Every structure is written in structure tokens, then in C-alpha cells.
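Trying the structure run again after the queue cleared.
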Amino acid sequence: MSTYVIWWIVAFALVAVELTTGTFYLLVYGLAAASAGIAAWLGVGMATQIVIAAIIGIVGTIALRMWRRVDEIDTAFQDLDIGQNVRVENWQESKGQVKYRGAIWDAEAAAPEIDTNKPLYIRAMRGSVLIVGN
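Done. C-alpha cells:
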């Protein structure tokens, strides 16, 4: 069996396993293996194939870690809003608008029945929608 076929089988297996995990790391390693397979198909030596796979794997891993770190920072800022008091502006059934930090926000009830006459507090955030409850 040719070397490039082995690289592509490894790449396919890594991408297939990635579909069950959702972390994107195995996708990067699958891309690295596929790139090494292309290099093997072009006739590049084994040492160069390994270096190509290693470089793409390392650069991809660093990029994913930086991307996840930005996502964690956004989550940390959202956590500062949890527990803060909001004022009801408009409410119908379990959705409405509340005033928070000087702006009107869309809001949804955290539980089916909340009392809008009592103070409401932010329980969670889903995008730009505040999830509120008593």
C-alpha cells in the first residue's frame, strides 16, 4: 500500500472520530495527515511528510487554543451579569423586554411562572437574550 494512501486513511479516521467529539482538534490533525498524504503523493520524502504534518498540527493546535481562550474570556464577562437586577419594561407570557445597564434587552423567563411584580434577576444569557427569574 502506498504511503499517501496510509496518510489519507489516517486523515479520514481522525475526521470521522472528530464528528463524534466536536472539539476541532482531531479535525486539525486530520488536515495535517491529509497534507502529509498530498506531500507523499507528490513524491516528497518521509521525513518531510512528517515535518509537514507536525507543523500543520502544531500551528492548528495553537490557533484553536487561542480561539478557545477568546471564547472563555467572553464567557467570563457574561458571568459578571449573572445575578444582576433588571427592571421590566414590557412583559407578555414568558417573554418581554427589560431595562438593564441603561438599555432595553430582550428577556425570557427562566421558569414558566415568574412574578413580574417582584424584582427580577439575570439567571443566564443566551446570546443577547437575558434569561431572568425571581
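The first helix runs from residue 3 to 21. Worth checking whether this holds up in the mutant runs.
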